[in-house]
Amino acid sequence: MKKLFSLAVVLISIISAHAQNDPNAKKILDAVSAKVKSFSTITANFSINSVSSKGKNNGVKSGVISIKGAKYVLAQGKMQVICDGAKTYNFDGAKTITVTSLEESGQSLSPQKILSGDYAKDFTCKLIGTKAGQSEIEMKPIDARKNFSKVNVFVDNAKSMITKAVILDKSNNTLQVSFTNLVSNKALDNAIFVFNKAKYPKDVEILD
To answer: Is residue 12 part of a domain?
Structure first.
């Protein structure tokens, strides 16, 4: 999980991504972005599979994510991330909670960011191909200082939703994030997006 949330750094480049994007890929991703923005909420199950550069499979970890606008809650076992729209609280499942601003956390390639389909400012995109109603799009970061080389996203064309992302870092390690059981417009209590220290261990350390 930590690897997932540390995949991106501050985007400094002022190069325009639109001029370099494959128009077919951009059309698909624009449709995804528009579809996601039309939902009041999204909930989904996700799984994360990490494979080392030497081919060692580190196993699959699963979790649940709930999204409401700029707010989201992500749970993976004892680990939890809460974004209240202003700050993000990342609980490591033990005794530490790391607090970051929305601007800082929004620069990470989290499951929420992957689902959004809104990549124009950060990546150049190319359509690799379409098979069985699913399109594969290769995305490369504009800022070469990012610590990953590319991200391939897979889009269900009928639903205009991203079902999977495969992230390759500069050390050739691979992280695959898959989504299932996606539900839109489900009623979600705003309270779940509010950080409450009382819900965590009494000796938890908060780092901000």
So the answer is: no
